Amino acid sequence: MADDPARTLALLWRVEQPAGTRGPRRGLVLDDVVAHATALADAGGADGLAGLTVRALAKDLGVAPMTLYTYVPGRDDLADLVVDAAYAAMARRDTTGRPWRERLTAVAEENRALHRDHPWTARVDPGRPVLGPGETAKYEHELAAFDELAESAGLDDVDRDAALTFLLDVTRAAALVEQQSADGSHGAAWWAARAPVLAQVLDPGRYPRAVRVGAAAGAAQDSARDPDRAWRFGLARALDGLAALIS
Amino acid sequence: MADDPARTLALLWRVEQPAGTRGPRRGLVLDDVVAHATALADAGGADGLAGLTVRALAKDLGVAPMTLYTYVPGRDDLADLVVDAAYAAMARRDTTGRPWRERLTAVAEENRALHRDHPWTARVDPGRPVLGPGETAKYEHELAAFDELAESAGLDDVDRDAALTFLLDVTRAAALVEQQSADGSHGAAWWAARAPVLAQVLDPGRYPRAVRVGAAAGAAQDSARDPDRAWRFGLARALDGLAALIS
DNA sequence: TCCGTACGCTGTACAACGTACGCCGTACAG
DNA sequence: CTGTACGGCGTACGTTGTACAGCGTACGGA
């Protein structure tokens, strides 16, 4: 692996190399590689990106593992490409002129859909920007949704970025909760396996709130009665928190 | 590995086994193993938990790698023990009787300190509860901080849990931002390596807000001029958002 | 006192993983 | 026609977690 940031960025932005014409024609196209990688990550569920394997992807493409290294410097760059492609493929509602709450809600819901379609997007390191065209387009679109709020509240650019980050953080966290309700990984069976020891060890006298609230929260999450209650709660809290910026 | 949840929980809560007295005495104590593992994770920086290796820990303890498996069923359980120990070791301010904003601020700051002392705690999967004594004590303590707010706002138990989750999510996200300002991983050198390609590819006409805001946010984060600006922003937004629950 | 046995410890080994290296064959440039 | 640049990939190495079986210890029962 080269570990060369410039190379990775060029790949993300599809900046073509001089590309000498010698040798055999390429058997694949980068976009196909990324598309298959995305499909593989989606099939892998929540830890899809982590489970995305060079060998598995190669087999999927009918090619030897090492062949992929003529398209991509290494596995990490592949992950970046997959993430950026997911960002690029997001549907983006044009809410120009609408009230800021509606605009921010649209942004949150677009990201919620992203996390639902590609569960692994909720687990990408938020501190490690990809800086690809997809992420940039997403960033531009989402910053635009803050135009009215930024003006009303007198937000400077740093605060505008912080406000967007805040909204996306809350959205991602809610999406994570939603996921484990959906995939049933914390369903009745999960709790049943732990109940005996917990019953022996969780003293309601010592942890009164934890036992009571934990049971209520677990039950609410398990029963899909109101699956997006946590979602609505987080979104409403975030919007109200931002609304307080308007003096 | 047994992958037995009951076994893991028993380990977390230190529920002793019958413990036959035959054979050689044990050369280690579980708490020592966990302590050394914590030190190793701390030394590993942000990806400390991921970088925590059975072999490295064994060498650290002066023991063969496989020996650790007589103390712990597998690496994942080790990670759970380390996380729960970090939770258990947190300082917890008693803010009983104080106004709810002060109580919630204390909770947020305690978690901020946790993420600062052990950067890897900001990267544990929030959807995968450990259910150990440390996490339980932390949960109880933090739920208690919501007593006044829950009463004033008429929160039921499910909402109280959601509100705590909300506050911790925001705290964790802010801690992540703070980390990469601190460790300089996104410092001038990081940007310098990417600047040439970005200059070639980031069209300010096409991405006006992204270029402008991104530059401002990047500069603000790079210069440690105001390192906890994002932190204060997120905390204030979260508290204001929760305050709106009080009709 | 002696031995069977339970149990702590560990050397070896295997299946994943990412990927460095070098060979092979292709197909264009001269 | 030939030299060479380049795509494809077989092999192999280092690193990960951990299954398994052997070794030696030290107690319980005779």
Automatic annotation (TrEMBL), chains A, B:
<dbReference type="InterPro" id="IPR009057">
    <property type="entry name" value="Homeodomain-like_sf"/>
</dbReference>
<feature type="domain" description="Tetracycline repressor TetR C-terminal">
    <location>
        <begin position="98"/>
        <end position="245"/>
    </location>
</feature>
<dbReference type="InterPro" id="IPR004111">
    <property type="entry name" value="Repressor_TetR_C"/>
</dbReference>
<protein>
    <submittedName>
        <fullName>TetR/AcrR family transcriptional regulator C-terminal domain-containing protein</fullName>
    </submittedName>
</protein>
<keyword id="KW-0805">Transcription regulation</keyword>
<keyword id="KW-0804">Transcription</keyword>
<dbReference type="InterPro" id="IPR036271">
    <property type="entry name" value="Tet_transcr_reg_TetR-rel_C_sf"/>
</dbReference>
<dbReference type="Pfam" id="PF02909">
    <property type="entry name" value="TetR_C_1"/>
</dbReference>
